[in-house]
Write a structure and sequence with these properties.
The complex is a heterodimer of chains A (600) and B (299). Chain A contains 23 helices and 21 strands. Chain A is of the alpha/beta class and 600 residues long. In chain A, strands 1-2-21-20-19-14-17-18 form an eight-stranded mixed β-sheet, with helices on both faces. In chain A, helix 22 links the parallel strand 20 and strand 21. Chain A is globular and about 75 Å long. The two termini of chain A are 16 Å apart. Chain B is of the alpha/beta class. Chain B is built from eleven helices and nine strands. In chain B, strands 1, 2, 3, 4, 5, 6, 7, 8 and 9 form a nine-stranded mixed β-sheet that branches. Chain B starts with a helix and ends in a 5-residue tail after the last helix. The chains are: A alpha/beta (600), B alpha/beta (299). Chains A and B meet through helix 2, helix 21 and helix 22 of A and helix 7 and helix 11 of B.
Chain lengths: 600, 299
Amino acid sequence: MRRWIAIGAAVAALVAGACSVNVKGNNQNVSGGDIPSGCTGVDVATSPEKFDLLTKLAEAFNRSDAAKNAKPCAFVRITKTSSGVGAQLLADGWPDPARDGPKPTVWSPAASSWGAILNQRLQAKGQPPMAPNDAKPFMVTPLVIAMPKPMADALGYPATPIGFGDLLALAKDPSGWASKGHPEWGPFKLGKTNPNFSTSGLSGTIAQYYAATGKQSDLTLEDINRPEVDAFMRGVESSVVHYGDITLTFLNNLYRNDRSGAGLTYVSAVAVEEKSIIDYNRGNPDGILDPGEQPRKPRVPLVAVYPKDGTLFSDSPFYVLDAKWVAAKEKAAARVFETFVQRPENQRSVLDFGFRPGNPSVAVADPIVAANGVDPAQPQTTLGVPAPEVLTKLLDKWGEQRKGAKVLLVIDVSGSMGEEVGGGDTKLDLAKRASIDALDEFKADDLVGLRIFSTDISPKEPKSYLDLVPIGPIGENREAISTRIASLTPTNGTPLYRTATASFEFMKAAFDPARINAVVLLTDGRNEDTFTDLNATLSSLRAGSEGQSTAPVRLFTIAYGQDADKATLKRLAEATNAAAYDASDPQTISKVFTAVVSNF
Amino acid sequence: MAGRLLALLAAAAMVVGAVVYRSSRDSTASAPPAPAAVVVCASELGAVCDAIPGATVEAAAVTADRLLAARSMAEAGVAAWLAPGPWAAMVDAGRAQGAPKLFRGSSEALGHTSLVAVVRKGQTPATCGPGPVSWKCIGDAAQNPSFRIGADPARSAIGLLVRAAALTGFIGSTQFGSNDVEGPPGDWLSNLDDRLAAAPGFGARSLGDFLVQQGSGGVFLTTGAAADGAPRAGFDVATPVPAATIEAVLAFTGGDHGGVPVGTVTSALRAAKWEPGPMAGNGGLPSPGVLLALREVVR
């Protein structure tokens, strides 16, 4: 449970704009401006994927007669808040509006399962529910299994329906894709996000449980405790490449591999929302065209596999909150806005973003078409959202069932880490606390070790880094790692390239096929070493990561402070199909560290 | 009589001042006070800025970040901004969806200059062969870690643009997206950027260093206006192909050029070796959005 809460808090400000993950204050993601005098303000906290859409609708609403004729006039502002974060903030009473944006009148997470989780958490605190059960969906998109088209073809889809059980069988087959006539694709590899704060990860985990039990609704605590269900879940999880905080990590990595002609070897299937497949096949994996970005269709498109066992919809519920800070007049104004967004002309606009309308009177249309790899006639079976107590138990169980990890923490202790960052703390002080806290996010049998680096830190070769705690079970290593981290002091320069390569090679040499193998490298600077060949470094990392490498090691990087070489760290991470994290503001390092660890 | 007139003028000024002050108080009663708006010039145009009374000089990137975060030029404390052309367009490209563009229809190109390579005599990169010097052949030479080359820092206005010009030469078109820079183009640019960002004592950090430090390198990338001061006896100034040109753009709000004496600035630009008026064609650089994205790619 601690893991769940910590991760939920950790992503309080995760902004997923690219493979590089940035952490900022949420109040940079508020649209609408000041509430006009005499009007009732309606603050809407929405999950990121519909922020742009709702912003447009809010602007149209604020100019509309509907808003002006409301008594008093209504004015809507939109705040971007990840679903898991929103659930946690609301459960905590939305404690810091200056940081997280105004207390919402309306909350629209990606799926109503988050509303159930919020209410369960409130109930656990003896508080009444906030998310009404009768909320209307604003728009919907089903969870699907995204597969590169040749792989779906090899499995005979759509003529042969596919379910999680089929994927489990393929994952367990030691010959992998060779059993389907494609040895060049290597083993079956599943991409899946962390269900503790990713809606697709949560929906995927629920769907797996239903597939394991053969049920389509009313999942019970008894169901999820059955040994055969546990075995099924562990089997599916064992094929996971790595987890991740956002599906975008997988889609960006897949897209980049596709453009270099290696898309079929990174991942075989990813649990994502249908709209993500449309975005991907249109050549815009994250669904947002940043300034300067141009859509480029992938060489190999994705196909949406609608699991034969059934699936769940992300239904974007429009919760007018039963919160103590929401007055009756604000609820009334929110209802006016809700009516506005449900108008057919506004519902049609959700199609532009790849979603299906929440208003059933508006037909599903382009781009929900076969040419984009999706099927408007699917899914044939919709799964029920489990009861709140089952959902929370399910997340706890997943914490035990998820694939184990083998991780080398590599921390920069160069002289610049001694710079003060306020409150009497140095950068190293904050990093030490954050990394020690992050140790709690590993499960007891995860394997974790500690390496530090700085020029000439070791009296003998290799002099650039020093292994302080050998890799071992975190349950046994936690104390030793904490103690060693706590005693770190800043030293010399930053041998970034040499250390990145050596750490990657070290983990490859000791690869454990039953675990996610990764390096987490934190640095606040740029390479300061006699070895300066970035190309050679990237080539070495790519060579160990490309093709059907059976020993994939991911190098996750954390750019720490303003002087970190973010561009290079992003390239190092991408060379190994991992993700780069941005902690330019040292005060965010704790959140970032925890978000990084959510990959395991 | 003169005393009475002065007293009358002083009284009138006080009344006007009070009205202006009251008006200003009323209009900003609910908003945090904005800094006094001033004319801002990019560092590369600092000398030109001497012709504008009260103007301040700062790095274009600093001004751009302030404008990107503000709802208006006034909120950013900028009455007018004189900077290399693409920077104003980059700000507009980078503004959040729904936010008003700051400079649409309110900017004017007052001069232009080419992006050039100042080449020490006899040190044209071998990769350029006997043909015209190109951005690609210069960048190809920079793929070798021992190649010595200089340019303004990547975070400067011109430094970013010469890197973008080189990348355009490598790709062979201005019509590419920021997402096309990954892979080989990104590696190529990164290597060039590495050489340009090399440690002190290896390459030149400024055109001045390059000109006087014999061993600092063979090539320096800069503007034609800046290169005009290079002694022709020791250096050649090449305009690499495909040619890239930038403008000196005055971006402003209101109808009076933000209070900038345009004629004076135009003269100052000419004195600083900028060609008068807007350039012909599109400049040979990628879109402002791509330029904005490149800020995250180079160092």
